[in-house]
């Protein structure tokens, strides 16, 4: 039985390796806020959300659209999807209660335990089959359609009747029929469990048909050695069937584990959607395009982590940066530039793993890798200077980056003077652009930003954090060329007052 709710042709690998910069992305984009909202305190949901979101950078365009269609079905049938998930969780938890303990080496105990577990699994599979029979027509996605079709075809009445008949026979109410051969030294070999004869005979046939001679013996109730030998003989006979039944249980358990894992991603999406709906924030299904295209346009994009933290609607932004390779963002201090940058990174990851995005409209090309280069606090150990540390992290990015990747820079290379920092940034950005890498760069380095502005490059767009005449920040990012000031005096006046600035 196959699930295939994350990919068309294979199951989701929960053990897959995540990007080398996993922890950096989590820190810079505040991804734990997103994962916690999806998990709602459930550790398993948290891990699945983390794996699915960060591994989305490997997703193809077809996989993204495949998951989007499944997620649309989840929105329309959330109660049914949660019910299926709960069945998978209950099956796994109930199986754990039937533990082997110290008797795991005894075939008879393995067989009895396997029969109990398989009976429980049949009960849970019947629940899935009932859901498929009653609700399959409510789902339209390719993934769910294939899933319910599989349940209907493989879990028909004949299957359940066959399993119940086999389980009834394996209880050996009428004794165990075992055949064996004599080997060297007259030792028994080739012990085989035989199916008992079930042919029904009339009383006339039973009376007149000649019977095969039977040779039998009985073990005395006090014959401990004989009883032990008989017990060993029985275990040899049922050993193979006990192991086969245990393997069948493992197969069904594996199915429920995969079902739980793959549905956990969509349950996390539902949890996130419900929280954003309560806040009043919109979401949409993004329009992904091939990696070689240059698309980056959106309307009403907001930082989902900030919205979840503040639990209220926050300022959103619009942008049309199609056919642009470089987006340079300047403007007033504390004007919303870093939040804007983070919203882009979050939306890109959410789109590529097949989720909805926090916007009214979002279209972007998929990328082969997402990298962040954010400013860090001063090294407390003083083992290296701040600029050295920035260049070291940049080297790590260069060693892993590939064409059609995205890099988010946040006030990078500002640890030295304006002229030197601008030249370092300019050379690095030019090299990345030559390799077909898309860049979003938040900076206060005017010389750096102005140098690109003077070139009038068609693949570069300039944005600026909006500031009103009275110094108020709107937290809107608008199109505009870089200015020579970041209006740091606004912050000084806000903290100390204008009169103190005058006296200085």
UniProtKB/TrEMBL annotation:
One of its GO terms (molecular function) is ATP binding. InterPro entries: DNA_mismatch_repair_MutS_C (IPR000432), MutS (IPR045076), P-loop_NTPase (IPR027417). Keywords: ATP-binding, DNA-binding, Nucleotide-binding. One of its GO terms (biological process) is mismatch repair. It comes from Thermovenabulum gondwanense. Transmembrane segments: none annotated. This is DNA mismatch repair protein MutS. SMART domains: MUTSac. It comes from the Bacteria.
């Amino acid at each position: 039985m196959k699930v295939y709710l994350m990919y068309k042709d294979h199951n989701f690998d929960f053990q897959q390796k995540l990007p080398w910069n996993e922890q950096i992305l989590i820190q810079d984009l505040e991804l734990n806020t997103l994962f916690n909202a999806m998990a709602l305190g459930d550790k398993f949901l948290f891990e699945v959300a983390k794996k699915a979101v960060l591994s989305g950078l490997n997703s193809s365009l077809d996989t993204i659209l495949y998951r989007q269609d499944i997620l649309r079905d989840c929105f329309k049938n959330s109660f049914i999807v949660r019910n299926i998930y709960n069945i998978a969780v209950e099956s796994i938890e109930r199986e754990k209660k039937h533990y082997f303990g110290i008797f795991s080496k005894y075939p008879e105990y393995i067989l009895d335990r396997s029969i109990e577990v398989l009976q429980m699994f049949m009960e849970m599979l019947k629940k899935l089959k009932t859901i498929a029979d009653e609700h399959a027509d409510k789902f339209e996605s390719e993934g769910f359609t294939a899933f319910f079709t599989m349940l209907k075809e493989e879990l028909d009445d004949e299957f359940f009747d066959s399993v119940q008949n086999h389980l009834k026979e394996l209880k050996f109410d009428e004794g165990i029929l075992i055949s064996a051969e004599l080997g060297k030294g007259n030792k028994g070999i080739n012990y085989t469990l035989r199916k008992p004869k079930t042919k029904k005979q009339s009383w006339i046939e039973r009376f007149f048909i000649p019977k095969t001679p039977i040779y039998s013996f009985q073990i005395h109730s006090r014959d401990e050695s004989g009883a032990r030998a008989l017990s060993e003989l029985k275990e040899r006979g049922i050993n193979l069937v006990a192991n086969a039944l245990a393997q069948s249980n493992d197969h069904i358990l594996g199915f429920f584990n995969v079902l739980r894992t793959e549905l956990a991603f969509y349950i996390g999406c539902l949890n996130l959607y419900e929280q954003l709906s309560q806040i009043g924030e919109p979401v949409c299904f993004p329009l992904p395009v091939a990696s070689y295209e240059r698309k980056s346009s959106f309307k009403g994009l907001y930082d989902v982590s900030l919205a979840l933290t503040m639990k209220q609607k926050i300022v959103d932004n619009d942008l049309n940066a199609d056919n642009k390779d470089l987006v340079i963002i300047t403007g007033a201090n504390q004007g919303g530039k870093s939040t804007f940058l983070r919203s882009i990174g979050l939306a890109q990851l959410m789109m590529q793993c097949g989720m909805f995005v926090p916007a009214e409209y979002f279209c972007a090309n998929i990328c082969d890798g997402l990298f962040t280069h954010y400013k860090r606090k001063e090294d407390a150990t003083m083992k290296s200077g701040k600029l050295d540390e920035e260049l070291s992290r940049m080297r790590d990015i260069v060693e892993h980056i590939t064409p059609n990747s995205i890099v988010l820079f946040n006030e990078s290379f500002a640890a030295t003077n304006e002229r030197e920092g601008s030249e370092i940034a300019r050379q690095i950005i030019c090299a990345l652009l030559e390799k077909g890498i898309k860049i979003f760069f938040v900076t206060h380095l005017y010389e750096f930003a102005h140098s690109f502005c003077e070139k009038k490059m068609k693949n570069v767009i300039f944005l600026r954090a909006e500031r009103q005449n009275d110094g108020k920040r709107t937290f809107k990012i608008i199109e505009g060329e870089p200015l020579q000031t970041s209006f740091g005096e606004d912050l000084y006046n806000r903290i100390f007052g204008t009169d103190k600035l005058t006296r200085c």
